[in-house]
Amino acid sequence: MFDNQNIRNGQGMLALSPLFIFLIMYLLLSLIIGDFYKMPLSVSFIIASIWGIISTRSIPLRERIEKFSSGAANTEVIYMVWIFIMAGAFATLAQKIGATEATVNLTLELLPGYFLMSGLFLASCFVSMSVGTSVGTVVALTPVAVGIATETGQSIPLFTAIIVGGAFFGDNLSFISDTTIASTRSVNCEMSDKFKANIWLTLPAALFIFVIYMLIGKNVSAPIQSVASNWILVIPYFVVIFTAIMGLNVLLVLTMGITTSIVFGLIFTDYSIIDMFGFMGNGIDSVGNLIIVTLLASGLLGIIKYNGGISFILQKLSSKISGKRGAQTVISILVSIVNICTANNTIAILTVGGISKEISDKYNLDKRKTASLLDTCSCVTQSILPYGAQVLMAASLAGISPLLIIPHLYYPFALGFMVILSIIFQFPKRHR
Asked: What phi-psi label fits residue 221: left (phi over 0), alpha (psi between -120 and 50 degrees) or beta?
């Protein structure tokens, strides 16, 4: 259950005001001026964070800053920072030694042009389902998708969004996904039962979007490769993908990818080991802004939680329930709003898991459907957050603004629509 003490001491909407300021400064301002590059994410978060610290009451300034800093320095955030560092090093190193180019050319040679978009979506769904992590999938496949988009003259934001959308297919369904584990444990549901309920939402959405990509991609033509690539240089990418599918830790996966890239770079290119260390350093530098944004966002969201913002949301929404549809709607909204406030779908599920179980028991909801809603709604919300780790990582690798990716996230939007239909029409019938 939510923390009653936090609610009594919380500041209601004032506790959530830093989030509103961020959304106004970044999203609304970018839309008004019509340029998604003018307003940096980091500056938006700094302004919102300053307000968050100012609006925090009853404790000295130093303690307010400490609360902010503890939010930025929690173990989940630092772990994500390590992934960003390793991913930046691997992505730049692989690109410099020719691994990215070789992988792109091999894909263009093997797949017909009309199948490139749907094929990338299928690959992203498969890898994420096997890996159980959307971040790992984004790291592995985004450089390839961007390379293909560049070679075929297609939209880089669209091709990047294909990978992000498919990455959340597996994040939502995989048995080894953190969100699956968190949602099933929260409501005491078996993973296999949650999967059976979940598939009624994810599979129709994925099939529909697969067909959409087939239709959109029918006019895409793969260019004739005039320069032969050294196909053996695709091995670093295969190492990353296959070791991830084996279930190895993502940091270990990236370490193996870096090691393989160095070995093949020494054998098949003229670069020295010092050259490749330089490439890795440049890659790490390239994710510096991404790391800064992640720390600022986490600090801001930490102070929102300290001020009772999360507890305020839980209290207000849980008091407005009527019937099964109302209960399912509140659970879906709760996890989505908390996800917006935490930018972490697993943390969102864990935060609202207890009260969701109480709501589920009180209104006699099927725990399989409750677990499915928790997981699915958190994944949909996380996938469309411009400050979420997955979109930030994809945007960094693609060299574009996170906001440019959002409109092209067809699968998450289709999945969200399926959630709405499942609540309105109460399907699947045996999981009500």
From this structure: beta
Report whether pLDDT(210) > 70: yes
pLDDT at 226: 45
CB-based contact 367:188 (threshold 8 Å) = yes
The model's pLDDT over 385-432, given as tens digits with 9 standing for 90+, comes to 998 989 999 999 999 999 999 999 999 999 999 999 999 998 877 655
* 7-34 pLDDT per residue, tens: 444 467 899 899 889 888 888 888 888 7
Dist. CA 43–CA 196, nearest whole Å: 44
The yes-or-no verdict on residue 103 having pLDDT over 90 is: no
* pTM summary value: 0.83
Distance CA 326, CA 321 (A): 5
The letter for the amino acid at 115 is F
- Pure H helices in 98-133: 99-110, 116-131
Give CA 301 to chain center in angstroms: 17
354, 396 Cβ separation under 8 angstroms: no
Could you tell me if 143 and 236 are in contact, meaning their C-beta atoms sit under 8 angstroms apart?
A: no
> What own/partner pairs with CB < 8 Å and gap ≥ 24 does 284-291 have?
284/85, 284/88, 284/89, 285/88, 286/88, 286/92, 286/396, 287/84, 287/85, 287/87, 287/88, 287/396, 289/40, 289/41, 289/42, 289/396, 290/84, 290/88, 290/392, 290/393, 290/396, 291/81, 291/84, 291/85
In Å, what is the CA distance from 357 to each residue of 23, 312, 331, 368? 31, 18, 9, 11
Phi, psi of 3 (to 5 degrees): -85, 110
Res 26: pLDDT: 85
Q: Which of 140-154, 219-233, 269-283, 340-354 has the lowest mean pLDDT?
A: 219-233
